[in-house]
3-oxoacyl-ACP reductase
Amino acid sequence: MDLGLDGRVAMVACASSGLGLGVAKALAAEGADVSICARDAERLAQACGKLEAIGGGRVRGQVADVADTAAVRRWVADTAAEFGGVDIVVGHTGGVVQGPVEDFGPDDYRQAVDTALIPHVALVTAATPHLKRGGWGRVLLITSESVRQPMPHNVLSGVARMGVLGYARNLVHSFGDSGVTVNVLAPGYHDTPALRGPSGEDTAAAAAEVPVRKVGDPDDFGALVAFLAAKQAGFVTGALLLVDGGNTRAAV
């Protein structure tokens, strides 16, 4: 299936490893020009090498912390200047401190919002003029299954990332008939450096909790994001898609 992404310009945040890299690889394989960012220059360079080996479109990497709004604006501006625009924006952030509600106070929640919500807002805000100018675009925001099911051990994530849903739903109407769609993905356990323990024990323990008895593959997650970015997904907007192997028990 031709997803119609050849020559499109995609930006993927936090893409030196894990889910972000899986998404960037899938978009590159479809022929998109891919711009990624990460904080660590060495890991960023290694990720760019993997993307270039795929042989799709152009690849660029930029050292940037998504929690730094000015750095995000520079990343968007530099990408648009080099690649001629921005068509696809994939928001992704780092994790937040885990723990139950009684462990945290107001400052902890502010920090969680700054870590898990504001970077999405900063990226989309900076990219919006480019998306609207092109008359076609995709905004895909990666959150967590915690937005659908409260997790007593991960309250900060649930609270901060719920804000991403509210933001995305308002973006749907803001973009209107501009040709830009907005969707949110809520991944569960995936085989990423954030989950993996020194001997893989964390991955095994997570798999035991999931009904399908395995954790997700970042490359499979990337393929799903690539389809939502495709021309065929133009009528899918405002959706929240769980990618968690059935781990979320919520009925609706």
